[in-house]
């Protein structure tokens, strides 16, 4: 999936909308649009880095050294719903996943308790207030695959459309550590 996405980005820059639709096979997704395209914007390197699961490049590109950084990538046919999901659930899941890993490393090493599940961390974390979390950047890309029965695309409606939405969230590292300790204390009660 990640390799296919990278290929799509490269093809978007090589081909224009019309020629890409003609030269790419019927089942291959085509990049139809992206955020800021109308203003001459290109797909940022940090978006490609998220698609490649390369957090270090995201941090470097957006100059986020010294922060805890989470990246979220969601896909679907409704961009507005993807943005809402990302803001509510997507980032919380990523933070909970990282906290679960860190808690398990500490508690198992100290023999304090058995390994805990991400669901337990999510439960505790969702009941507390997340302080200091900021969305630093977001970006969307609209892809399309030819609809059944369409041999050659003449217009955007000839495609089945899917959006990829990418976001970068940050928190001060010290504040993250305080909140991680609070979650550990809550779990241990």
Looking at this protein, list some descriptive labels.
189 residues, four-stranded antiparallel sheet, elongated, disordered N terminus
Overall pLDDT metric:
81
For the biggest β-sheet, the strand order reads 1-3-4-2
- Provide the helix percentage: 40-55%
Q: Which spans of ≥5 residues are poorly predicted at pLDDT below 50?
A: 1-24
Measure the end-to-end span.
42 Å
Helix-strand sequence = HHEHHEHHEEH
Radius of gyration: 20 Å
Strands, count? 4
Counted by DSSP, the helix tally is 7
Shape: elongated
Brief sketch in words of this structure:
With 189 residues, the chain is of the alpha+beta class. It contains 7 helices and 4 strands.
Describe the structure.
The chain has 189 residues and is an alpha+beta fold. It has 7 helices and 4 strands. It has helices at residues 2-14, 17-23, 45-51, 55-61, 79-110, 118-127, 173-188, and strands spanning 30-34, 67-76, 134-146, 159-172. The protein has a 4-stranded antiparallel β-sheet, with helices on both faces. Helix 3 runs antiparallel to helix 4 and helix 5 (79-110) packs across helix 6. The radius of gyration is 20 Å and the shape is elongated. It starts with a helix and ends with a helix.
How does the SSE layout of this entry go?
Elements: H1 2-14, H2 17-23, E1 30-34, H3 45-51, H4 55-61, E2 67-76, H5 79-110, H6 118-127, E3 134-146, E4 159-172, H7 173-188
Antiparallel strand pairs: 1-3, 2-4, 3-4
Helix pairs in contact: 3-4, 5-6
